[in-house]
Amino acid sequence: MKYKGLILDIDNTLYDYNIANNIARKSVLDFCENKFNIDRKSIIKAYDKARKKVHIELSETASSHNRLLYFQKMCEILDLNPLKFSFHIYNLYWDTFLNNMHTFDGIYQLLNMYKNNICLTTDLTADIQYRKIKKLKLNNYCSSIVTSEEAGREKPHPYMFMLSLQKLNLKANEVCVIGDNFKKDIFGARNLQIDAIWYNHDRKHEIFHDSGIKEINNFKEILKII
Fold first, then answer.
1. Mean pLDDT of all residues in 1-29
2. Can the peptide bond before residue 156 be classed as cis, meaning omega within 30 degrees of 0?
3. Do residues 33 and 41 touch, judged by C-beta distance below 8 A?
4. CA 144, CA 142: separation in Å to the nearest integer?
5. The overall pTM is greater than 0.90
6. Strands 118-122 and 5-8
7. pLDDT at 110
């Protein structure tokens, strides 16, 4: 193996986030439309407004991703009692999401290769990320995690990666970061001179001239690099 350990993103790196999110979002829209007899466009508009408001008010914090806050504010906008409905909607979303998570091909080969030498490094709140970890059985391969809720900062802040190195008990030149988000994962890693593999399965375009970055489109290609 080329590295002693990995710093690994979770969302949209280990599984297809967009598929799970779209199905979960639809379950929420269906519920609200049927339960409250509100037209779908109004629900979508209220949700988007609520999400934007939370992101602005809680920018750069793990709480800015908390969907319970999104749904609370969505209910407030729609003049629904949030204490009656927001938590139910929140659980409906995440239960549906977790049931529709599908890992990318090659994930478990990689996890097995670096078993117990992987730090999961992720934005979002710890509670939800632990539920994803259990669902995907990542705890059978990984024994450390850094969430933005724990760190008090979000990627690409260097503290997220420094804390990950500390938990792995490894140096920057001994690990590789793997993630799908160029700004958060790859840029964050390279700021500390950590090698990075950009899993660009969404075929996004970024211009870079850095030998420390490898771009791949299929997860199985990673096995050839590391």
1. 97
2. yes
3. no
4. 6
5. yes
6. parallel
7. 94
The single-letter code of the amino acid at 156 is P
User: What tokens appear for 124 in the block?
Assistant: 């979002």
Residue 83 tokens read as 């204490």
Angle between helices 67-77 and 40-57 (to 10 degrees): 130
HEC profile for the chain?
Answer: CCCCEEEECCECCCECHHHHHHHHHHHHHHHHHHHHCCCHHHHHHHHHHHHHHHHHHCCCCHHHHCHHHHHHHHHHHCCCCHHHHHHHHHHHHHHHHHHCCCECCCHHHHHHHCCCCEEEEECCCHHHHHHHHHHHCHHHCCCEEEEHHHHCCCCCCHHHHHHHHHHHCCCHHHEEEEECCHHHHHHHHHCCCCEEEEECCCCCCCCCCCCCEEEECCCHHHHHHC
The CATH T-level fold of domain 5-14+103-225 is Rossmann fold (3.40.50)
